[in-house]
Amino acid sequence: MDNVALAATSHVTLWSLFMQAGFIVKLVMLGLLCASVWTWAIIVDKAVAYGRMRRALNGFEQIFWSGQSLEELYRTLSDRKTTGMGSLFVAAMREWKKSFERGARSPEGLQMRIDKAMDVTLAREAERLEARLGSLATIGSAAPFVGLFGTVVGIMTSFQSIAGSQSTNLAVVAPGIAEALLATAIGLVAAIPAVVAYNKFTGDVGKLNQRMEGFADEFGTILSRQIDEKLQAPQHRAAAE
Description:
- By secondary structure, the protein is mainly α.
- It has one domain.
- Helix content is about 90%, strand content about 0%.
- Helix 1 runs parallel beside helix 8.
- The Tol-Pal system is composed of five core proteins: the inner membrane proteins TolA, TolQ and TolR, the periplasmic protein TolB and the outer membrane protein Pal. They form a network linking the inner and outer membranes and the peptidoglycan layer.
- It is a multi-pass membrane protein.
- Part of the Tol-Pal system, which plays a role in outer membrane invagination during cell division and is important for maintaining outer membrane integrity.
- Keywords: Cell cycle, Cell division, Cell inner membrane, Cell membrane, Membrane, Transmembrane, Transmembrane helix.
- One of its GO terms (biological process) is protein import.
């Protein structure tokens, strides 16, 4: 009898365990497999997107600090699809030009509008960077419990089979326990990469946002000086006359 049991258990495969599982356990496994595929799709997409964003930030900083005039740089970027610092620059310069075209007189009001334009753009860029990271957090936290649910259901079904067969030999017990534990294993396979990727990407988003916030502060200071010079020059000429 022991030899028969060992022979039966020696041919147990992952596919056979899946096929032998009950409907609920199969549903849990399929859901976790789909979550794992979605996790890796997000990981690949975010890795590519963040790498592209870093290159865009590096390239824009190199151009911005090369000494090129702000007007010339704005003309170059205004008709293009920009991201990151480029979007902040275009938003600030667009508000700058609109305000002076309409006869801006208050330096404080103009500076406030420029800062607001960059804040809105920065929030939009941050939202785009953080898109779908919530899915990784959800999968990382929920997948082990979903797998555990499948395991509990599978073990309950296994115990019912043991009671129905009135036998506790290995051939009866092993497949049911194995298919139940497979659900937990798939849950961990889905959860572990999601948690690691979420933590990594959250740190990357923080660093990218810090770089953009730093540029917004520096560029706001540059524009503030130019606003003072541009608005105060007519006042000095009027006083001289």
